[in-house]
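sorry for the late reply, my laptop died twice this morning and i had to redo everyting from scratch. anyway the thing you sent over, i finally got around to it. pasting the sequence first so we're on the same page, its 144 residues, then the predicted structure underneath. double check i copied it right bc i was rushing
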Amino acid sequence: MTLYLDTSSLIKLFVEEPGGDEVRQHLSEADAVATSLITYAEARATFARLRRTRSFTADGFRSAKRDFDEDWSNYLVVEPSLALCRAAGDLAERYHLRGCDSIQLATFLDVARERGREETRFSSFDHALNQAATKALRAMRRSG
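ok and here's the structure:
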């Protein structure tokens, strides 16, 4: 099974938050883990925000960044192309998503098409994005 992690899920591997055990369980069941290239910038921005708000100590911040950078090469990272960004724009309109969320969804759908819809699982802690992913997968199944 291929596990697709958006930033809200992937970050839980490096930050102590509710849901981290769930992500680690899904990770243990996966043969491969995929994410979008934008996840890198979003995760680093999250680490910086946590440091600014003092949710991270200086050592915790450095440790999270180091661990994240070390793990990054283990992921199947999909770079957004113009075609993917156009598809993301359509998804943003259809499902009322923010820009980066629509790129995450478009990337997941590409991974699901390539690796098999039934063999690809989406992981996010964003309710609206999860709903959009469910609807988009249903639409993909109907269209064949």
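The radius of gyration is 15 Å.
thats about all i looked at so far, will dig more tmrw
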